[in-house]
Amino acid sequence: MKFSLQQLVQALSSASMTADADIIGLSTDSRKIKTGDVFVALRGDNFDAHDFLPQVAQTGAVAVIAERLPADFQLPALIVPDTKMALAEVGRLWRKQFVMPVIGVTGSNGKTTVKEMIAAILAAAFGEDYRLSTKGNLNNEIGVPLTVLELRDTHQAAVIEMGMNHPGEIALLASVALPTVVLVNNAQREHQEFMQTVRAVAEENGSAIKALPDNGVAVFPHNDEYSSLWRAYAQEHGLRKIISFGLSPDADVAGTYTTSAFGSEIKLSIAGKISQIHLQAAGEHNVLNALAAAACCHAIGISNEVIVQGLENFHPVSGRLQRKQASCGATVIDDTYNANPDSVRAAIDVLKQLGGDTLLVLGDMGEVGDNGAQFHHEIGEYARASGISELFLLGDQVQQSAAGFGKAAQYFTDIQQLLSALDARVSKDSKVLIKGSRFMKMERVVAHLLNVTEISSQQKTIGTH
C-alpha cells in the first residue's frame, strides 16, 4: 500500500488534512503499528482508539485518520466524520488499483468453509503466495477493508468473505471488495433478531450481486427458495453470467455423493465433464459447499483437475465439524464456532450418520429474536426425531430444547455441572457433537473432553457469523 494523505483527502468524503505525509501501510491496532503506517482511530461499543492517539505519535506512525485530535497533536492527520467509513473508502481506493478475479462470498451458513475451499483451489491453481484470502472470519466492515488492503501486484486472484447481521452491510462490503464473482451460498435463519425474516436475509446477501460489473458472474444454489430472487438481481442491470450449483443434475455445477469415513465421495459434473473428489469434510451441507467453491473457481477459468486437487487438499476449519478424540476414546465433533437453527440441524444430520451412542451438547443459539423459544424447541424435536441418544443443554433458552426432546434431555445453567454429567456419561464408544452460539464458548466443553488445559482461541477475529 502506498498513498499520500493528499491523495486520500481527495478520495474520502468530507475529509480535511492538517499536513501531508507519504504512507506505506495502515493499522487499526495501536499495538501493531509499523514505521510508515497511517493509524485509523476506530470507535466501538466498548473502546475508542482516539484515546491512544498520544501514544501513537511515539510508535512510528507517520499519520492518523481520526474524527478528532488531542490538543497539540503533531502528526499529520486526516479529520473525517466517521473513521469506519473512511477505512472502507481507503480500502475501495486500493482495490481499484488491481485488475484480477475477486470472488466475494456471502450467505447464511458455510461462508468461512466455502472461502477456505476456494482458497485451497486458488492455492492449487496459482500457489499459496499468489492468492489472497480472508484470514479467519474477518468479514465485516473492518475486516473486509483490511483484507483488501493486503492486495499486492503479485496476487493472481482473491477470495473475500462478506458477513452481516444488520441490513445494508453487504452492499457496503461489496462496494469495498468490488468482486468479479459473487457467491450467495444460501439464505437461512440467521440474525433473526435484526433481520426478522429469511427473505430479508436473502435480499441482504443478494445485494452483493448488484455490485457486480456487467461481465461479472453470480453464483447461487440451483433450487434454493430464493434462487429466482438472486437471478433477478443478476439480470437487473443488464445480463450477467449466472452459474448455479446443487445436487440436481440440472445445475450448472452438479454433484452426487456417498458418505465415507467422516467425509464424502463426490461425483462432480461441470459442463458435462465428470470428476471424482474425496472431500475430507462431513455432511451434505459440506458437499454443497464444495460444489459452490467449484462453481466459483470454474467461473474464473480454473480447470476441473485443479478444482479437484484443491478440494482434496481442504481440511475442516477450526470449530466447524472437526473430528477429534476425547481422552476416554470417544469421538468428539467440534462444531462450536457458532449456531443458528439451520446449522444445528445440519450438524445433527452428521451426528445421526455416525450411529451408535450419539450425544448432542448444545448451548443457546443467539440472535434468534422473537422466535427464540420456537427455534430452540424445534431443535429438540429434530434431535429426538433423528434418533440422538441423549441431549445435554447449557444456557437459558435451551430449556425449550429440553421440552422438545423429552425425558432423555439434561439441562444445566452451570458449565461445571454439565462437565461432571458428561464425565459420568461419555464412554469410548460415544459420539459427541458440541455446538452453540459464539457467546456460549462451547469450546470449553471440547477442551474438557480432550483434557486440554489451554483453549486455543478460534474466535479472536472481528467477523460476523
Question: Would you mind describing this structure in some detail?
Answer:
The protein is built from 16 helices and 22 strands. It has 465 residues and is of the alpha/beta class. It has three domains: 3-81, Udp-n-acetylmuramoylalanyl-d-glutamate--2,6- Diaminopimelate Ligase, Chain: A, domain 1 (3-Layer(aba) Sandwich); 98-313, Mur-like, catalytic domain (UDP-N-acetylmuramoyl-L-alanine:D-glutamate ligase), CATH 3.40.1190.10; 322-450, Protein-Tyrosine Phosphatase, Chain A (Alpha-Beta Complex), CATH 3.90.190. A nine-stranded mixed sheet has the order 9-10-8-11-12-13-14-15-16, with helices on both faces. Strands 17-18-22-19-20-21 form a six-stranded mixed sheet, sandwiched between helices. It has a five-stranded mixed sheet with strand order 2-7-6-5-4, covered by helices on one side. Strand 12 (217-221), helix 9 and strand 13 (241-246) form a beta-alpha-beta unit. The longest helix is centred in the N-terminal third of the chain and has 16 residues, at 111-126. The radius of gyration is 23 Å and the shape is globular. It starts with a strand and ends in a 15-residue tail after the last helix. The model is unreliable at 453-465 (pLDDT under 50). InterPro entries: Mur-like_cat_sf, Mur_ligase_C, Mur_ligase_C_dom_sf, Mur_ligase_cen, Mur_ligase_N, MurCDEF_CellWall_CoF430Synth, MurE/MurF_N, UDP-N-AcMur_synth. This is UDP-N-acetylmuramoyl-tripeptide--D-alanyl-D-alanine ligase. One of its GO terms (biological process) is regulation of cell shape. GO terms for molecular function: ATP binding; UDP-N-acetylmuramoyl-tripeptide-D-alanyl-D-alanine ligase activity.
